[in-house]
Amino acid sequence: MSAATHRRLATASWESLLRSQVAVMRELHKEPSFKKVGSREYDVLFTLSQCPTGWVRLNELNDNVLLTQPSISRMVDRLEARGLIQRKTAEDDRRGVLIGLTEAGAALQKEVGRAHVHNILDVMETALSDEEMRTLLELTSKLRESVAQR
């Protein structure tokens, strides 16, 4: 394969991945439950729901969501004002602040999450076989791991 053909293939693959992600996300965001909480807010609630201790430092939260530090700080303020998350002082570092879900935040995350999973299944099962989903998972995992090692 020539260098030019290789470049075109790499660029077309990346563009296809990006456009597919955008198309799928647009479809998923049509879900009525996202009117209760936006997809980025849901991402924060979901990330917090996955923390083994139930609490995470702001910088750790920032490592796991698709937002910049200033954006995540403002979002945490908004979610706290809505009573969906809470803050507490870190026991090991009095200057550190931990963030966790409130009962209302956990309930909303579960409600939206159930609808979200249903929609994900609908989108994915309509387009891909189980074997194709496994291949997609392997390829996207490989790509993320490669980028993380750079």
Automatic annotation (TrEMBL):
<protein>
    <submittedName>
        <fullName>MarR family transcriptional regulator</fullName>
    </submittedName>
</protein>
<feature type="domain" description="HTH marR-type">
    <location>
        <begin position="1"/>
        <end position="145"/>
    </location>
</feature>
<dbReference type="InterPro" id="IPR036388">
    <property type="entry name" value="WH-like_DNA-bd_sf"/>
</dbReference>
<dbReference type="InterPro" id="IPR023187">
    <property type="entry name" value="Tscrpt_reg_MarR-type_CS"/>
</dbReference>
<dbReference type="InterPro" id="IPR036390">
    <property type="entry name" value="WH_DNA-bd_sf"/>
</dbReference>
<dbReference type="GO" id="GO:0003677">
    <property type="term" value="F:DNA binding"/>
</dbReference>
<keyword id="KW-0804">Transcription</keyword>
<dbReference type="InterPro" id="IPR039422">
    <property type="entry name" value="MarR/SlyA-like"/>
</dbReference>
<keyword id="KW-0238">DNA-binding</keyword>
<dbReference type="GO" id="GO:0003700">
    <property type="term" value="F:DNA-binding transcription factor activity"/>
</dbReference>
<dbReference type="Pfam" id="PF01047">
    <property type="entry name" value="MarR"/>
</dbReference>
<dbReference type="InterPro" id="IPR000835">
    <property type="entry name" value="HTH_MarR-typ"/>
</dbReference>
<keyword id="KW-0805">Transcription regulation</keyword>
<dbReference type="GO" id="GO:0006950">
    <property type="term" value="P:response to stress"/>
</dbReference>
